[in-house]
Amino acid sequence: MKRSVPYLGAFMLLIVGLYFLAFPDALTDPTTLVSMGSIAIAATLLIAGALRDSFRIGSREFDWNVPVGIAFVLLGVSVGGSMVRTALAASGAMGWVLGVGAIVGFGSLVWFGVQIARDTRHVDLGAEPSNARAVGVVLFAVVSFLAGVAVWSVVL
Q: Which terms are listed as keywords in the entry (predicted)?
């Protein structure tokens, strides 16, 4: 996990930069600034967490997984909160479906970030993840995708 995280952070910074390049008027919108600023901070934490083994803040020392976990929590809260706000402004059933989907989807990202920061048994931070865990993650992703398609087809 540690090897691939800086690429995700760099990609996120690139997306934020391209967004402000394409939409310069967004710099005056406070909601966009909070969302994009949170994504940029999360990207910086991902890059910093992957490049160092530990961080010292005052007398406390934190392992690399703490800033990476905080980055995932920040990303889930900022993007999920933005999507819920957009969903509540929409009218009809699709707004509610989008809102519930955002809460569930980005809630799981927040949960995953907390598990990474705490280095619990739910995440495998080792250099070589186990095959059983990799198969479980792939199955979970497939089932989640199929459930999303099923909900989408019922609503539409």
A: Membrane, Transmembrane, Transmembrane helix
Phi, psi at 82, each rounded to 5°:
-65, -40
Residues of the chain with pLDDT under 50: none
Q: How many domains does the chain have?
A: 2
Report how far residue 126's alpha carbon sits from residue 1's, in angstroms, rounded to the nearest whole number.
Answer: 8
Whether residues 73 and 110 share a domain: the answer is yes
DSSP code of residue 128: S
Distance CA 104, CA 69 (A): 18
Note the pLDDT tens digit of each residue in 101-121: 778 888 888 888 888 888 776
Residue 143 and residue 69 in one domain: no
Q: Residues 35, 13, 67, CA angle at the centre, nearest 5°?
A: 80
Instruction: Let me know: does 72 contact 113? Beta carbons within 8 Å.
Output: yes
Q: Is 156 helix (H, G, I), strand (E, B) or coil?
A: coil
98 is written with which tokens?
Answer: 């989008």
For residue 60, what is the enclosing H or E element?
Answer: strand 60-63
Q: Which domain holds residue 138?
A: 129-156
CA atoms 36, 31, 110, 98: torsion sign = negative
